[in-house]
Amino acid sequence: MGQWGAGQAAPAARSLVFAAAWWGLGRSWWYLFVPVHTTMTIFITGHSGYHLTLDRVVPDALFLLLNPFQAVALCTANTTKPMDHAAHHLRPTTHFALFFTFWDDLLGTSAPPEPHVPLPLMALNLLWYAFLWAFAWAAYSRPAAVAAAAALHALLPLALPDALLGGRASRLRAWDALRRAYGVGYAAPGADGAFDARRAAAEVRRQLSEAAHARGGKPSEAAAQAAAVVTAMAGLSSSDSGGTSGDGGGHGAPPQAGAATAAAQAPEAAAAAAAAAEQRRFVFAYHPQGFLARGALLTFAARGARSPASALPGGVRLAAGGWMLRVPGMQQALIALGCTDASRSNLLRLLTGPEPTSVAICPGGWAEARHMGSYRLVIRRRLGFARLASEAGAALVPVLGVGEPEVTGEGGPGAVALRPRSLRVVFGDPVAPLPGEPPAALHARYLAALSALAARHGVPIEMAE
Q1: Are residues 34 and 93 in the same domain?
Q2: Does residue 125 sit within a domain?
Q3: Which tens digit of pLDDT belongs to each residue from 253-268?
């Protein structure tokens, strides 16, 4: 199944016939939505056993061009997929739904059995489906207007919507209820896997002190030097953490090759890391599933009042790919939830600005999202987030979503189930950038901390590269 060949040639031919009929009937919107969508999803692709996952460009693009509603269904939770009807023929007492899987979930006729979907989640999924449906209708009936809106979103700088909406909806308590409904949880305070900003800052200071010992300097001298530089910076007070006052600075540049250059930059790097620790600025790296990770969104963006990230003094912003922030409607929603542009310049600005802001990144991105249903990570060759942490002087914190593959399911990025699954988000020890340390060395220490976190929680991660 899922291979392009004779088994898919017949459905493709029949799809062309329906497309010709649609054209001949005046290209009616309703004809496209009801008979064509139902026939192609249920009777053609559903009976062919073809698993449409959006990860094979040529055959999948043909179906999506002929039936754009299939793209809406694939990107929406609780809508029937072609394989749902194929499963109905394999198990006749399961999968009766034509458009939505709510009834199968509620009546226990899913195979394998799915958790019951709470009514608030049903409403949220239907609202998202309605938004996508309306967008598809607008693109179909008013293509010029939609094209103009898309061009406007592509040309306007993201700083404008970020200034107006940035994180305005991220602390709503409704997100706490949504997390409970989705089954997203965290380790108890003080337990292994819990995140505490004070303890993390103390761990960063310990690592800097050990680095000072290794360089042969006296810890007291290194601490005094860092404190002097931090105090000289204009910035926020860290009175709530019981440490010295200082700026969010983080202006220490990554050391260049050569012992003399590294030695000259060591005091600035130490001061930047000390400032970031005192003000609790961190770079959180979430795994697995790349940009499809549910735990990342509900922990660092729509975090409400009870997410571990909610206790950070200046909050946290979740990095999102630039293309996601260029889609009308999606841009406003994601930015209001607390997402921000994933460009290096923007993230560095947040980490080194006057407000003590942390950032969260899904380093695997799209490439890791393709390995759905597994703990395969795309990170070994990705040094960008380590360079960012080195430049900002902010510690890297590994984060794992235990159960994330069960949330997304198997197949491909288009086959996301997004139904309630138990998901536990655990945090590892911070990895502080050390004075004179190249980003590659910081990246190697981060991978070691990530592996240790996975081993402690029984997560079978493996590298996909």
Answers
A1: yes
A2: yes
A3: 343 443 344 444 555 5
- Neighbour-count burial of 151, counting CB atoms closer than 10 A to its CB (0-12 exposed, 13-18 middle, 19+ buried): exposed
φ, ψ (nearest 5 deg) of residue 73: -65, -40
Contact 50, 82 (CB under 8 A): yes
With beta carbons less than 8 A apart as the criterion, state whether 401 and 297 touch: no
Instruction: Say which DSSP state 93 is in.
Output: T
Q: Residue 22 has which token pair? A: 């649609």
Task: Clarify whether residues 163 and 137 are in a common domain.
Answer: no
* Residue among 393, 137, 105, 423 nearest 266 (CA): 393
Alpha carbon distance 240, 430 (integer Å) = 20
Question: Kind and range of the H or E element at 458?
Answer: none
Query: Of 100, 115, 141, at which residue does a domain stop?
Result: 141
Query: Scanning the structure block, which residue is given the tokens 């979103």?
Result: 153
Residue with token string 């010029």: 144
Domain that holds residue 339: 157-196+277-463
Secondary structure element (H or E) that encloses residue 462, with its range: strand 462-463
Please list, residue by residue across 97-109, b when 16 or more beta carbons sit within 10 angstroms of its beta carbon and e when fewer do.
beebbbebbeeeb
Matching residue, tokens 């709530």: 240
The string of pLDDT tens digits covering residues 396-445 is 999 999 988 877 654 444 444 455 678 899 999 999 999 889 999 999 99
431: left (phi over 0), alpha (psi -120 to 50) or beta: beta
Considering only CA atoms, which of 428, 430, 429, 404 is closest in space to residue 417? Answer: 404
Residues 176 and 113 occupy one common structural domain:
no
Quick one: 177 and 32 in the same domain?
no
Instruction: Tell the residue number behind the tokens 């008979």, with chain if given.
Output: 35
Question: Are 423 and 339 part of one and the same domain?
Answer: yes
Interior CA angle at 99 toward 97 and 102, to 5°?
Answer: 60
Q: Which residues contact 375 (CB under 8 A, 6 or more apart)?
A: 287, 288, 405, 454, 459, 460, 461, 462
**271, part of any domain:** no
Q: In angstroms, rounded to a whole number, what is the distance separating the alpha carbons of residues 451 and 454?
A: 5
The pTM score is 0.71
- Mean pLDDT to the nearest integer, 364-386: 88
Q: Establish if 149 belongs to a structural domain.
A: no
Average pLDDT taken over every residue of the chain: 74
Range of weakest confidence among 41-55, 209-223, 363-377: 41-55
Answer with the residue of higher pLDDT: 454 or 138: 454
372 has pLDDT over 50: yes
